[in-house]
């Protein structure tokens, strides 16, 4: 509680990496842009063909390199452009999140959301709420490689 | 060390208003292997492309980053331009600084900072881009059109006319779709059947068209140029080749209590039936659920009466597997379910009907042979109330948020026709807005008001009550800001339309995306309105969004042209962003094979050079590049990193992550 | 000879730690390892052996050497500060003390490794005599006297008293600084313990294990021995043995990139690993047999050849304890027939 | 055990003499009674060195990989728990089934010498085991132990006496007699802690890591031609443990890579020179998989689809747990 | 900043690339000087230097230019890996980290080579270390006897320093250059065939001293040919130029037996190599 207040006071801007699948979520992000639905600028999007391209290694790499939050967005289950990619993503990320939590990493530092190409609104809302979550969690100190401190 | 060129687009003020372009240039110039950086007002314009091409040639650029709008907009444009300048098109990356930066951030400092970060990420990635060569895949010169309404018919005809084979699949026993149910069409008031029927006949008679009615899509695999589709041809129980369509069977059929779908359930049909008089094919179908022979084993009258021995109770569903080069979706629409709109008494009072039911009621081939009468007592209504926007533009969550687009016009049509045929009938229309953008539309509406004296009241109907044999309509009059109530003999609800129920299932099968309302999503709202984001899948008609007949027909033609664009080629360039396996590292665990949605990966025992540079024989994964669609599922399943994806390699993504963090 | 009673050890450690960072054997989770002493550290002077050797005090597992910075075409190199911190390694057993001599022959030989040298010079070694050797101990094989381990200061733990004897100027300097805590002690207890320890050592399974000092001369025969295959077949190629070994010193130099800065660091590596010092090429010794042979040939043949007969093994027995599949230098030496008793 | 050792010797002898196989994988004695190591016998006359007793914990399955590539016929002696790993290696196409003869040998549990030594036992000269009695002779006198109290942790959670794969079984099946441990208990204990406590626990555990790779190299699920950590191209954690974050990465990624393939043999924890409780990480994955996707025992067969290369339409969603923030 | 004034052995110096020549399709020659001008360090022919690609690591290369050149040193580098890939992509003006010199040189100052008749045998990029020796000797021409350079490459285009080979060296006193390519090629009038056979064809008398450098297989075959021609292994010097990492004889990578290639080599007399375990 105190920590989060302190963060707000110092204008703490969490660094967030968002992996977005090309067919749904990246288009959703474009949709948010077209509709001018804003979200924090410290969220940077990396385009991948499908959410199933996101190796847990990339997520860990982002944390290691100092990202405060990582969010992975893909098509809704059942709507995957590649039929079943996001089903694998779902299992992979579920296990990864469970393990991160088990290792004592704050729940919520990583999130998976299904955002379709039509859900520009949802994209922006999701990003805003995720940024809020990360803000309340504060800086990622547990997974960061100390050498990467800026 | 690469020689990277960075080009930053202003997009007029779209980007430049929120991103300090000069500062972006300055920042990227400091990156070691950035050899050239420049900005331009519109990079996508000829001038912008020239700038890029000249820089590639003059500075010997080995990689290019364009900071501009979404790659979904102009990646192809810039890649083509780069290729023309002699650079492999896949050595170019886009930093999306419009949709994902300038348009979502207001503060210029913030926007600039983010644009720099995105540019850096793209630069980091492009360093590891490798030149890719698109492969080739053969095109099957046959198209599939799903849905046999006016949209599907027109698309099929246009493709067939151009000389290509096309299969038209319709779920119902006859093609024709919604348009065949309509009486007249606005604003010209042609008879719908009169203009549709010839087209139905044409398409059925066309040597290049094969029609599968009473059929559904079972399975779709493959990709543009090479789709493989299983079509389930449901058992009709009537041999189409023998049947003459005489109709004796349906006359003699003892089971006549099934609601007639074609007439929106306003009357009943027999268990063996021909949908409507002009049906194509004019071959009846046995509705096994209601057929006595199928339900009880007794009967068999139709078999006995059929003069051409066409009845076949043993017929079974048939699966037809066919390859196609392209697919068109033309699945049409249906009216929404009104159970949530209890205030209108729909379903409770027989005299509250939907506009589609009204069409059947006024159609000469309809249940009343075209006589306007109440379904409750058969009397001719003296006062009709039309309610528009029932379930359309509805934010209450009961209906649809979108405008169904066609209601204003058909309501005007129905009101006008009523007044014309029955001048003594009083017609009132309640509306929120009357939307008439279309050729001759407003004139048409004004005629209804001015010439035919249809009462238009701006206001919403709050409640309808049955009172004796009348209906009491409670409404608000927005102009006089008062509550009014009036008596009516019949109420017609201009019910919202929605995509056909099958759209969702098809979307999944075709990996075509649909929006929140189950309308198919187009690849680009403005520039690619008939293409779905899935290559080789096109959209025709209302399945993409509400449309009237002429719009549907023009989109159907457009979809056909897109299909022809594919079928006219012998081969298509395949997406070179496919998976590839590093055989030196691959351990042959074949986790990749297990996750591949396309069966594009298999294990092969091969002689490979191992990590020590020695030959050895072992199982390794082999990717069939023609089948691979580049999703990347295999790359993550692979524990040792042997499997990688061109264009989105481990190194590229890691570099992006590093650049951002 | 000086001594200090158990009751005053806490004071002793505090006083030593005031002179420099104090490394001593401490128990964490049932495992004894050299740890930086702090108030509350659970010191364990009973354990015969720490799990890892103490070589990381001089040769850390990872050490940043320098930074590169790029600015356009310009490149600058900035070497990291050489360590200046004074350290005390306390409770070092005889075998480990001798291991420093082995490492010195590598790192202090021209061209001198400046980082190692700085660390080595800033460290005072306080050894601890063994009184309860384990079955895995074979320091005697290399003529190391575990009961008189040397270093800058030697200590003996007899009963509740720690006997203290400075050997070098550095040791004497340290002793002076903590003189107040030390009392005079007589050598009788120490001598008795030394005698008893030696008697125990004679009873241990490896008491008779000796390595023929002439093996370097038989390099070719040993190198081509058929026994390497069978031995190396069961080796996992992990580097547990190398990383716990006090004398192994292979390293790799790698770069770590952050933005436009590159940190160059040195880290432990193992000649047993497939990817030893991997850059463009793989380990030059591609087969497991070659890698396995390299490690033992280096310890038993090449190193003594280059260093007046000193073996690169001090008989600490850690590899005997830690190898996942119980392969170790004793087994190898015996199998090769270079052990004297076979 | 002595009786079984005789059976093994006889079996190995006949296999080699009759040229049914070119190599037999078994164990040979070390310097002390307790340090047997794996060995490959290729001639009958070598077999006098063959040993089988309470100190043969190693799974020999992974050694078959090298011979399998060269199309050598090999026999391997496998305790019930070892057969899981062998199956997994077959499934991962690292061993060709047709080349190997798996001979199941009964086991009543392996003794953990560390447990004995942790009780202050030093200078071991010999160990003798009869029934539940373990007598340790040392240079400092004799010590007695109960075998059931000094078993390896992995034996205390023995998966049973059945062989998942065996071309032949020797002797009568034996049971491990001891207070059984459920490996999931440790995971549950950790799960019950607060996030901060768990973090502190893992920091402490993982900071011990010296990146010797013993856990990986012994693991029957870690059989890649080239481990991702050895692949410079892959840019994952380097070989040095620069700080705890990197060690964390190494262990998360390793556990992740064997998730759904880890047979739960417990060898990683046994061989860790630093005593890191690695089982707690691998078991967590196994437990999660069982809970989320239904019970799955890797290595119980050689053809089932592993949970991470499979899916169901209604799999549980990766949402933040109830305990999460917000 | 270094606090003791002493540089660590692994700390490189900065040099700047002042010239890049493209020799063949995959070989470039780089000239390196101190940023303020002048040679980064002195060396003797046959010695090596470690070049850094920051972020990727280091690799060792033999110095191609003559020690007698005062202002710079040169490296002919073949593209064959990540670091060489990096080097091939740099431009003139790029600064680079360099440390050395490492290893033993050819014994140019001792009686082993002085006043001897010499044959230089090189294959492909193997000319690089010999180039330095040849230039050194030509600069001190009177100290040495006859010089025969036998150089083989895959094709005409694969000769490194073709201009010097064909135009400069042959003009020197008592110096001959013999070139051969693997396969016949249009416009090539010289010898066609592999170096070992070419050696036999040239009928050298076995009283000369040989400096041999090239790919391992070529060294092996040439050595066999030389022995057949009556040469003794003590007359042949070669380099084992591979697998060095730290360059200072510590890291444990490059040793063959008790010899560290980086410290005790890379120049060995062939009879010395025979004494090493068969592991190179």
Give me a quick take on this structure.
The complex is a heteropentamer of chains A (150), B (661), C (342), D (326) and E (280). In chain A, 42% of the residues lie in helices and 15% in strands.
Account of the 3D structure:
The complex is a heteropentamer of chains A (150), B (661), C (342), D (326) and E (280). Helices cover 42% and strands 15% of the residues of chain A. Chain A is of the alpha/beta class. Chain B has five domains: 4-126, Rossmann fold, CATH 3.40.50; 142-232 and 317-332 and 500-567, FAD/NAD(P)-binding domain; 248-305, no CATH class; 337-497, FAD/NAD(P)-binding domain, CATH 3.50.50.60; 579-645, Alpha-Beta Plaits. Chain B is built from 19 helices and 34 strands. In chain B, strand 22 (426-431), helix 14 (441-450) and strand 23 (455-458) form a beta-alpha-beta unit. Chain B starts with a strand and ends with a helix. With 280 residues, chain E is an alpha/beta fold. Chain E has helices spanning 82-89, 127-139, 162-168, 195-202, 216-228, 261-264, 270-275; strands at 13-22, 27-33, 48-53, 57-62, 73-78, 95-102, 118-123, 147-153, 175-181, 191-192, 209-213, 236-239, 255-256, 259-260, 267-269. In chain E, a hairpin with a 4-residue loop joins strand 1 (13-22) and strand 2 (27-33). The radius of gyration of chain E is 18 Å and the shape is globular. Classes of the chains: A alpha/beta (150), B alpha/beta (661), C alpha+beta (342), D alpha/beta (326), E alpha/beta (280). Chains in contact: A-B, A-D, B-C, B-D, B-E, C-D, C-E. Chains A and B meet through helix 2, strand 2, helix 3 and helix 4 of A and helix 5, helix 6, helix 18 and helix 19 of B.
Descriptors:
heteropentamer, B: 661 residues, alpha/beta, Rossmann fold, FAD/NAD(P)-binding domain, 5-stranded parallel beta sheet, 28% helix, globular, D: 326 residues, 5-stranded mixed beta sheet, 3-stranded antiparallel beta sheet, 11 helices, disordered C terminus, iron-sulfur (chain B), oxidoreductase (chain B), FAD (chain B), FAD/NAD-binding_dom (chain B), NAD(P)H-quinone oxidoreductase subunit I, chloroplastic (chain B)
Strand order of the largest sheet of chain B: 10-7-6-18-29
Q: What percent strand of chain B?
A: 25-35%
- For CATH, the homologous superfamily of the largest domain in chain B is named as FAD/NAD(P)-binding domain
In the CATH hierarchy, the architecture of the largest domain in chain B is 3-Layer(bba) Sandwich
Name the CATH class of the largest domain in chain B. Answer: Alpha Beta
Mean pLDDT of chain B: 93
| Spatial shape of chain B | globular
Distance between the termini of chain A: 25 Å
Which structural class do the helices and strands of chain A define?
alpha/beta
Taking pLDDT < 50 over at least 5 consecutive residues as the criterion, the unreliable ranges of chain B are none
Query: How many β-strand runs of chain B?
Result: 34
Number of domains of chain A: 1
Strand content of chain A: 15-25%
> What is the CA-based Rg of chain A, rounded?
15 Å
Bin the helical content of chain A.
Answer: 40-55%
Shape of chain A: globular
Low-confidence stretches of chain A: 1-9
CATH fold node name of the largest domain in chain B: FAD/NAD(P)-binding domain
InterPro entries (chain D): 4Fe4S_Fe-S-bd, 4Fe4S_Fe_S_CS, Helical_ferredxn
Pfam family, one (chain D): Fer4_8
Protein name (chain D): 4Fe-4S ferredoxin-type domain-containing protein
Organism (chain D): bioreactor metagenome
């Amino acid at each position: 509680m105190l920590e989060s207040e302190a963060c707000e006071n110092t204008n703490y801007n969490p660094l967030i990496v968002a992996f977005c699948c090309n067919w749904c979520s990246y288009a959703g992000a474009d949709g948010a842009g077209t509709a001018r639905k804003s979200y924090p600028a410290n969220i940077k999007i990396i385009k991948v063909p499908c959410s199933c391209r996101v190796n847990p290694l990339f997520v860990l790499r982002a944390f290691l390199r100092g990202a405060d939050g990582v969010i992975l967005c893909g098509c809704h289950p059942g709507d995957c452009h590649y039929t079943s990619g996001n089903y694998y993503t779902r299992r992979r990320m579920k296990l990864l999140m469970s393990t991160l939590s088990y290792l004592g990493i704050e729940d919520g530092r990583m999130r998976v959301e299904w955002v379709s190409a039509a859900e520009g609104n949802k994209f922006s809302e999701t990003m805003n709420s995720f940024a809020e979550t990360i803000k309340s969690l504060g800086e990622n100190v547990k997974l960061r490689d100390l050498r990467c401190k800026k | 060390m690469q020689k990277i060129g960075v080009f930053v687009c202003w997009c007029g003020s779209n980007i430049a208003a929120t991103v300090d372009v000069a500062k972006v240039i300055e920042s990227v110039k400091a990156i070691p292997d950035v050899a050239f950086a420049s900005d331009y007002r519109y990079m996508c314009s000829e001038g912008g492309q020239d700038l890029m091409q000249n820089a590639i040639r003059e500075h010997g650029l080995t990689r290019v980053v364009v900071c501009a709008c979404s790659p979904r907009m102009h990646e192809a444009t810039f890649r083509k331009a780069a290729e023309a300048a002699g650079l492999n098109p896949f050595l170019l990356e886009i930093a999306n600084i419009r949709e994902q930066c300038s348009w979502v951030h207001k503060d210029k400092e913030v926007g600039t900072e983010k644009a720099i970060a995105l540019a850096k990420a793209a630069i980091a990635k492009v360093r590891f881009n490798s030149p890719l060569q698109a492969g080739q895949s053969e095109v099957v010169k046959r198209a599939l059109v799903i849905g046999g309404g006016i949209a599907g018919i027109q698309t099929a005809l246009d493709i067939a006319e151009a000389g290509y084979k096309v299969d038209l699949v319709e779920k119902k026993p006859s093609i024709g779709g919604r348009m065949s149910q309509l009486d007249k069409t606005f604003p010209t008031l042609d008879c719908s059947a009169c203009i549709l029927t010839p087209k139905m006949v044409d398409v059925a008679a066309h040597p290049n068209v094969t029609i599968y009615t009473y059929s559904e899509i079972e399975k779709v695999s493959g990709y543009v140029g090479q789709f493989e589709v299983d079509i389930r041809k449901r058992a009709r129980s009537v041999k189409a080749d023998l049947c003459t369509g005489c109709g004796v069977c349906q006359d003699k059929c003892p089971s006549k209590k099934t609601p007639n779908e074609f007439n929106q359930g306003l009357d009943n049909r027999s268990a063996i039936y021909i949908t409507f008089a002009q049906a194509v094919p004019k071959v009846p179908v046995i509705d096994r659920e209601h057929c006595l022979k199928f339900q009880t084993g007794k009967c068999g009258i139709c078999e006995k009466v059929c003069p051409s021995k066409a009845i076949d109770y043993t017929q079974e569903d048939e699966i037809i597997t066919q390859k196609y080069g392209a697919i068109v979706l033309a699945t049409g629409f249906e009216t929404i379910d009104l159970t949530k709109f209890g205030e209108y008494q729909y379903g409770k009072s027989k005299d509250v009907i939907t506009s589609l039911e009204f069409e059947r009621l006024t159609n000469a081939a309809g249940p009343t042979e075209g006589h306007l009468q109440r379904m409750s007592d058969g009397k001719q209504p003296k006062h009709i109330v039309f309610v528009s926007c029932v379930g359309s533009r509805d934010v209450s969550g009961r209906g649809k948020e979108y405008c169904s687009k066609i209601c204003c016009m058909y309501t005007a049509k129905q009101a006008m026709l009523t007044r014309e045929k029955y001048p003594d009938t009083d017609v009132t229309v309640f509306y929120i807005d009357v939307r008439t953008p279309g050729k001759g539309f407003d004139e048409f509406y004004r005629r209804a008001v001015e010439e035919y004296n249809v009462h238009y009241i701006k206001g919403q109907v709050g409640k309808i009550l049955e009172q004796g044999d009348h209906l009491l309509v409670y409404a608000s009059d927005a102009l006089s800001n008062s509550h009014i109530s009036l008596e009516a003999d019949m109420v017609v609800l201009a019910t919202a339309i929605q995509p056909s129920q099958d759209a969702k299932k098809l979307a999944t099968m075709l990996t075509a995306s649909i929006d929140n309302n189950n309308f198919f999503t187009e690849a680009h709202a403005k520039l690619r309105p008939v293409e779905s984001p899935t290559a080789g899948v096109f959209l025709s008609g209302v399945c993409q969004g509400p449309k009237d007949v002429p719009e549907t027909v023009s989109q159907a033609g457009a979809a056909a042209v897109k299909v022809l664009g594919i079928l006219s080629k012998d081969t298509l360039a395949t997406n070179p962003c496919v998976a590839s396996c590093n055989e030196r590292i691959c351990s042959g665990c074949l986790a990749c094979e297990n996750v591949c949605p396309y069966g594009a990966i298999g294990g092969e025992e091969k002689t490979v050079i191992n990590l020590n540079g020695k030959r050895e024989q072992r199982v390794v994964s082999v990717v069939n590049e023609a089948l691979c669609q580049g999703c990347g599922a295999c790359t993550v399943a692979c524990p040792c990193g042997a499997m990688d994806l061109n264009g989105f390699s481990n190194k590229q993504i890691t570099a992006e992550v590093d650049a951002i963090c | 000879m000086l001594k200090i009673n158990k009751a005053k050890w806490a004071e002793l450690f505090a006083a030593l730690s005031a002179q420099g960072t104090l490394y001593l054997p401490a128990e964490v989770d049932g495992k004894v390892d050299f740890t930086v002493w702090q108030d509350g550290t659970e010191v364990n002077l009973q354990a015969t052996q720490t799990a890892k050797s103490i070589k990381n005090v001089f040769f850390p597992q990872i050490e940043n050497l320098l930074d590169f910075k790029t600015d356009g075409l310009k490149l600058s190199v900035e070497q990291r500060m050489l360590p200046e911190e004074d350290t005390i390694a306390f409770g070092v057993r005889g075998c480990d003390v001798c291991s420093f001599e082995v490492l010195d022959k590598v790192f202090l030989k021209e061209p001198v490794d400046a980082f190692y040298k700085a660390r080595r010079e800033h460290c005072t070694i306080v050894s601890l005599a063994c009184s309860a050797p384990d079955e895995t101990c074979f320091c005697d094989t290399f003529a190391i006297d575990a009961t008189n381990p040397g270093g800058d200061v030697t200590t003996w733990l007899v009963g509740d008293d720690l006997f203290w004897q400075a050997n070098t100027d550095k040791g004497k300097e340290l002793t002076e600084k903590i003189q107040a805590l030390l009392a005079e002690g007589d050598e009788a207890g120490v001598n008795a313990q030394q005698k008893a320890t030696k008697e125990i050592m004679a009873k241990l399974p490896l008491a008779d294990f000796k390595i023929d000092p002439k093996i370097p001369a038989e390099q070719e025969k040993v190198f081509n021995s058929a026994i390497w295959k069978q031995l190396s077949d069961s080796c996992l190629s992990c580097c547990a043995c190398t990383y716990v070994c006090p004398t192994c010193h292979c390293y790799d130099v790698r770069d770590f990139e952050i933005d436009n800065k590159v940190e160059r660091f040195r880290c432990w590596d193992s000649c047993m690993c497939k990817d030893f010092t991997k850059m463009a090429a793989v380990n030059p010794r591609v087969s497991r047999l070659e890698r396995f042979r390299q490690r033992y040939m280096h310890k038993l043949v090449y190193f003594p050849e280059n260093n007046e007969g000193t073996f690169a093994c001090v008989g600490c027995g850690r590899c005997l304890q830690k190898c996942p599949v119980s392969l170790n230098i004793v087994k190898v030496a015996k199998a090769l027939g270079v052990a004297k008793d076979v | 055990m002595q009786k079984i050792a005789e059976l093994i010797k006889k079996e190995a002898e006949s296999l080699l003499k009759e040229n049914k196989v070119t190599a037999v994988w078994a164990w040979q004695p070390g310097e002390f009674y307790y340090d047997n190591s794996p060995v490959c016998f290729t001639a009958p006359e070598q077999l006098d060195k063959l040993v089988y007793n309470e100190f043969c914990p190693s799974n020999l399955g992974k050694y078959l990989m090298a011979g399998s590539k060269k199309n050598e016929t090999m026999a391997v002696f496998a305790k019930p728990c070892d057969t899981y790993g062998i199956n997994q290696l077959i499934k991962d196409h690292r061993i060709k089934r047709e080349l190997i003869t798996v001979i199941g040998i009964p086991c009543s549990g392996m003794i953990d010498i560390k447990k004995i030594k942790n009780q202050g036992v030093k200078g071991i000269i010999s160990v003798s085991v009869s029934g539940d009695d373990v007598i340790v002779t040392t240079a400092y006198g004799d010590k007695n132990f109960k075998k059931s109290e000094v078993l390896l942790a992995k034996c205390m959670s023995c998966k049973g006496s059945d062989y998942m794969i065996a071309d032949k079984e020797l002797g009568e099946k034996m049971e491990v007699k001891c207070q059984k441990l459920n490996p999931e208990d440790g995971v549950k204990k950790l799960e019950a802690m607060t996030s901060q406590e768990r973090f502190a626990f893992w920091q402490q555990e993982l900071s011990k890591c010296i990146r010797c790779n013993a856990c990986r190299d012994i693991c029957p699920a870690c059989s890649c031609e080239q481990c991702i950590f050895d692949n410079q191209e892959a840019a994952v954690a380097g070989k040095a443990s620069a700080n705890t974050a990197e060690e964390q990465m190494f262990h998360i990624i390793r556990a992740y890579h064997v998730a759904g393939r880890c047979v739960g043999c417990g060898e990683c924890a046994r061989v860790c020179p630093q005593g890191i409780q690695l089982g707690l990480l691998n078991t967590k994955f196994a437990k999660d998989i069982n809970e989320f996707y239904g019970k799955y025992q890797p290595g119980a067969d050689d053809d089932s689809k592993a949970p991470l290369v499979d899916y169901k339409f209604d799999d549980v969603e990766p949402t933040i747990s109830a305990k999460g923030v917000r | 900043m270094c606090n003791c004034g002493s540089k660590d052995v692994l700390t490189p110096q900065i040099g700047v690339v002042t010239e890049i020549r493209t020799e063949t399709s995959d070989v470039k020659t780089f000239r390196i000087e101190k940023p303020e001008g002048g040679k980064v360090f002195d060396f003797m022919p046959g010695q090596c230097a470690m070049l850094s690609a920051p972020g990727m690591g280091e690799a060792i290369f033999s110095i191609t230019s003559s020690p007698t050149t005062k202002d710079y040193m040169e490296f002919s580098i073949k593209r064959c890996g990540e670091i060489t890939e990096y080097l091939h992509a740099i431009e003139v003006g790029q600064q680079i980290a360099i440390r050395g010199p490492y290893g033993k040189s050819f014994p140019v100052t001792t009686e082993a080579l002085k006043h001897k008749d010499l044959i230089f045998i090189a294959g492909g990029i193997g000319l690089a270390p010999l180039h330095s020796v040849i230039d050194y000797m030509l600069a001190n021409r009177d100290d040495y006897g006859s010089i025969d350079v036998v150089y083989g490459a895959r094709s005409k285009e694969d000769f490194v320093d073709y201009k010097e080979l064909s135009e400069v060296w042959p003009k020197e006193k008592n110096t001959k250059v013999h070139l051969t390519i693997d396969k016949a090629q249009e416009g090539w009038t010289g010898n066609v065939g592999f170096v070992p056979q070419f050696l036999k064809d040239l009928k050298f008398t076995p009283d000369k001293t040989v400096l041999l450098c090239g790919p391992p297989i070529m060294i092996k075959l040439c050595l066999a040919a030389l022995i057949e021609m009556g040469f003794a292994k003590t007359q042949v010097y070669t380099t084992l130029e591979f697998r060095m990492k730290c360059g200072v004889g510590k890291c444990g990578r490059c040793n063959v037996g008790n010899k560290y290639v980086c410290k005790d080599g890379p120049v060995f007399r062939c009879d010395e190599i025979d004494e090493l375990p068969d592991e190179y």
